[in-house]
């Protein structure tokens, strides 16, 4: 079911999420600075994240073929490309209607209502929302060593990491829209 059919999520909703996470223009600047630093490290970041997911059977299971229970390498590769773009998009901090619509699509692609359709795969049919929420921590915590490579003072690295935390929390909240009735979201 589309976001429109379930209830419209608007830029006004996004503004409320920004306020709820204390997200400011300073966070936009910090994210954009992080984008400069991460630009040539995206594959290295993905290696860390994929290593984490791959070392946790309950997480890698969402990429497993239903036919044999083995991770689908083509599916993992396709998602990796999108995950790299997600890093770039998060760092770009362009919170417009297109970005908002894509966040809702990301949620749908993790939920049984849309999982596997983009890549035409027969993998696990659903990513539990609890895993998505819990992954907000390792996704943001593991960025620090990469952000430090920019040579910024520690307090600036803190600002970038905090901006990532806030943005990821907002995105997870948006992704959750696919999982719950709109009136409860």
What does this structure look like?
- There is one protein chain.
- By secondary structure, this protein is an all-alpha fold.
- Helices cover 64% and strands 0% of the residues.
- It has helices at 3-6, 11-20, 25-38, 42-54, 57-60, 73-92, 97-110, 129-134, 136-141, 144-148, 154-175.
- Helix 4 crosses helix 6 (73-92) and helix 7 crosses helix 11.
SSE layout and pairing:
Layout: H1 3-6, H2 11-20, H3 25-38, H4 42-54, H5 57-60, H6 73-92, H7 97-110, H8 129-134, H9 136-141, H10 144-148, H11 154-175
Helix pairs in contact: 3-6, 3-11, 4-6, 7-11
Strand content: under 5%
> What is the CATH level 1 assignment?
Mainly Alpha
Shape: globular
H-E order = HHHHHHHHHHH
E-strand count: 0
CATH topology: Globin-like
Query: Which parts are unreliable, with pLDDT below 50 for 5 consecutive residues or more?
Result: 1-5
Structural class, please? mainly alpha
Helix content: 55-70%
Number of domains: 1
Q: Compute the gyration radius: what is it?
A: 17 Å
Major sheet description: none
Overall residue-averaged pLDDT value: 95
CATH architecture verdict: Orthogonal Bundle
**Fourth-level CATH superfamily:** Globins
Total helix count?
Answer: 11
Characteristic terms for this protein:
single chain, 185 residues, mainly alpha, Globin-like, 11 helices, 0% strand, globular, disordered N terminus
How would you concisely characterize the structure shown here?
By secondary structure, this protein is mainly α.
């Amino acid at each position: 079911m589309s976001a429109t059919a379930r209830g419209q999520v608007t830029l006004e909703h996004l503004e409320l999420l920004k306020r709820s996470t204390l997200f400011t223009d300073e966070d936009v600047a910090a994210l954009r600075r992080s984008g400069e630093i991460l630009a040539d490290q995206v594959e290295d970041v993905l290696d860390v994240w994929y290593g984490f997911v791959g070392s946790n059977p309950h997480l890698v299971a969402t990429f497993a073929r239903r036919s044999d229970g083995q991770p689908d390498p083509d599916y993992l590769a396709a998602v990796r490309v999108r995950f790299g773009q997600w890093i770039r998009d998060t760092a770009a901090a362009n919170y417009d209607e297109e970005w908002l619509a894509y966040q809702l699509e990301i949620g749908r692609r993790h939920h049984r209502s849309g999982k596997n359709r983009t890549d035409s795969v027969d993998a696990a049919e659903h990513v539990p929302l609890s895993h998505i929420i819990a992954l907000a921590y390792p996704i943001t915590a593991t960025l620090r060593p990469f952000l430090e490579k920019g040579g910024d003072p520690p307090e600036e690295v803190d600002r970038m990491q905090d901006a990532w935390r806030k943005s990821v929390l907002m995105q997870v909240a948006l992704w959750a829209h696919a999982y719950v009735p709109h009136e409860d979201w």
